[in-house]
Amino acid sequence: MGAAAKTSDAEIRAGARRLLELHGADGVSMAAVAEEVGVRAPSLYKRFASRAELLRAVTGELLGELQMAMEKAVREGEARGSLERMAARYRAFAKRNPRGYALIFTYDAEADMGARLASVGPLMGVLTTALGRERALPAARTLVAFLHGFLTMELQGLFQMGGSVEEAFRFGLATILDGLL
Amino acid sequence: MGAAAKTSDAEIRAGARRLLELHGADGVSMAAVAEEVGVRAPSLYKRFASRAELLRAVTGELLGELQMAMEKAVREGEARGSLERMAARYRAFAKRNPRGYALIFTYDAEADMGARLASVGPLMGVLTTALGRERALPAARTLVAFLHGFLTMELQGLFQMGGSVEEAFRFGLATILDGLL
DNA sequence: ACCTGAACACCGTTCAAGT
DNA sequence: ACCTGAACACCGTTCAAGT
Q1: Which of A42, A63, B2, B68 stands 20 to 30 A from A30 (CA)?
Q2: Which pLDDT score, from 0 to 100, does residue B111 have?
Q3: Under the phi-then-psi rule, with left for phi > 0, alpha for psi from -120 to 50, and beta for the rest, what region is B77?
Q4: Can you tell me the mean pLDDT for B120-145?
Q5: Contacts of B168 in chain A (CB under 8 A)
Q6: Are B68 and B130 in a shared domain?
Q7: A80 and A33 within one domain
Q8: Same domain, A109 and A152
Q9: How far apart are the first and last CA of chain A?
Q10: Do residues A136 and A93 both lie within one domain?
Q11: pTM for the full model?
Q12: Does B138 contact A176 at a Cβ distance shorter than 8 Å?
């Protein structure tokens, strides 16, 4: 029999996420992750073929959590309420995982396309029911663009001209929802 | 007298931008930039204290170009037209400099805050004239959030559900402008 | 003054050798 | 089967030595 495993895929992802939020993406070195889980760097390659794949796995995990948050926001027959709850949960998710949220949009898309599409599923569902298949797509793109752009700027501290960021979020969301519904 | 300068700040920035668009931010290594301008890596440190500062200089240059593009979109007394031209120029700028555009929002903000604020100046001007000081700020944040989010997703190829991306852009922009003006 | 080779500490990654 | 030290090619950065 061989040596006992000292760690696991899930523990490695968790360590990588901890380092990501603490020290940014640059802080997620293979050596640092390895130390985080009590192993040497080369051992990580038994489970993840490269640093890029480890980061992709983290991205996939985050997208799964985002999708769950979006699903919880949906209530049958309450289009506007569902969209408002989605927006609030989306923002809360990004604030809980600021570096992780940035990672989702940093890493070359292509991969994870399945998880990406799945995470927008609930939104597409609500909009398709409310607006029909045809109008749902541009509506979803408008809403997601606003949410993503707003969160990126908020998390990076780019709202520096004073005023209430909270109010701007409510105002922007209401403006778009008024236009859509 | 000392050795003749083989390069310049501007040439180094240009080399960095070429590498950035060709091979991504990872491709902008000090050695690669040095080779691009016909010098060895240590020489770059005479002009830029670090790779981070070089990238910051590139960011500043890009922000200046973006600001100029925004200024050209403004016509007195044409709020909606000015905003539509701004949106079109913003998108064109991002498509001309896809990696550079991403860099602007990748690099830890803090620095370049002056250039950042300046680049939003024309937009704030138009909106302040049209809506008054109070309402201009959340309006600007809504519009910029939409533009940034949309471009990020478009450039990263995240609009994968078919349909016309062009139409979605027009639709989203019109929806927001209808709500603002 | 600017340029350079050599050196340092750090990466990601591979691999042969251990148990 | 998993873990490890050693090694490789590459980073960013510093610095003494060249002209």
Answers
A1: A63
A2: 72
A3: left
A4: 97
A5: 137-138, 141-142
A6: yes
A7: no
A8: yes
A9: 63
A10: yes
A11: 0.95
A12: no
